[in-house]
């Protein structure tokens, strides 16, 4: 199953390895890039930028291209991921630098994308960053991978509608779901430092 | 009466559900209680999964903060906070207003989803 689905990708990976050490790894061959559908909110250019990047990498003489945000978005486009949404978080939120949300067409599509991202990550980063795991393998609608400075969420479109992560991370405090949450108020007999009254249980506070 | 914080979260501790799920926020005459801790020791710390009894139903949950002081330079909360989770790991609620500690990120386990729906970090 893996071999049949990933036949094209295996060939893609093996080709640069079998070639001489001078040929650097390229993200994907230019003809396939030109044919695929372009979508997404990231600022990375189209096939022209990738070809230019490939030329630069060839000149760099077997230096592996870094696993950064442009590479991730290029991979996602290659995978026919729908609605790629890349949100750059400010450094005050010390969570990550880039937050990516991706939709897939089916559960198998999500799993395939996630496993392919992990495979490419392991292929590029050998030494510095710790291992990452795919979270949500038992679920069928939401998977996520956390690489240090980049977090990728693979969801089905219905799940995406329910959680609305883009709204939360772009609007911050002005998110409408947060506003609809009933505001938690301190109980009337709350005095800072003293233990609360025994009659006050969290479930009676609405 | 409420006893002081002895060990973090174990069987029969009353917990506070902090996400905006319907199950966690509708009032009930009994507080949600832990009935099992999925841990080698029966004591749950931040990042452990527990089984809760809410409104007569069993639901899994993830501990995001407890009253007991933990390792140095980790936050200590005034209430035992918990986020409801399905059996497959998806959170039941869609937003979390209370602060969530950063140490969840370094821990081994599936916490990225809970961190994705959280608003404030500590």
From TrEMBL, chain B:
Record keywords: Mitochondrion, Ribonucleoprotein, Ribosomal protein, Transit peptide
Pfam family, one: Ribosomal_L14
CDD domains named among the record's database cross-references: Ribosomal_uL14
Cellular localization per UniProt: Mitochondrion
Gene3D superfamilies: Ribosomal protein L14
Cellular component terms per the entry's GO annotation: mitochondrial inner membrane; ribonucleoprotein complex; ribosome
Keyword Phosphoprotein appears in the UniProt entry: no
UniProt GO BP: translation
UniProt keyword annotation of Transmembrane helix present: no
InterPro entries: Ribosomal_uL14, Ribosomal_uL14_sf
GO molecular function terms noted in the UniProt entry: structural constituent of ribosome
Family, similarity comment: Belongs to the universal ribosomal protein uL14 family.
Name of protein: Large ribosomal subunit protein uL14m
Species: Opisthocomus hoazin (Hoatzin)
